[in-house]
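Lab notebook, bench 4. Still working through the backlog of constructs that have no structural model yet. Next entry is a single chain of 108 residues. Request: give me the structure tokens for it.
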Amino acid sequence: MGSELLKMAEGFSMVAESLRSLAGQTEMINPCTDRAEDIMQEKQADTAKADTKEKKVTVEQIRAILAEKSQDGKTVQIKELLKKYGAVKLSAVDEKDYSALFADAEKL
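Model written out:
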């Protein structure tokens, strides 16, 4: 009887480990400890950081705002702005500068 109970316990352990893997948890959590609460708080903090991170600006967004500013008669300022980022045209601007360029373009 004892060996059968051990086999059942082993089976439950394997099922629990599989469920943890499916849920994306790699570390065992005992709900009776404070560790579970700590992990939950860490995940909430990570989610908050991800929400507050600056969203990636695309070349299409920059093109749209530059077109709008160009229609407003600010073509000269747009050319100067592109020169500031070492480019003659938008396609020559480094992708790492997109956020700053977008912010500057909004100020025109």
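Notes after review: Helices lie at 2-23, 35-52, 59-71, 75-84, 98-107. The CA atoms of residues 39 and 45 lie 10 Å apart. Flag for follow-up if needed.
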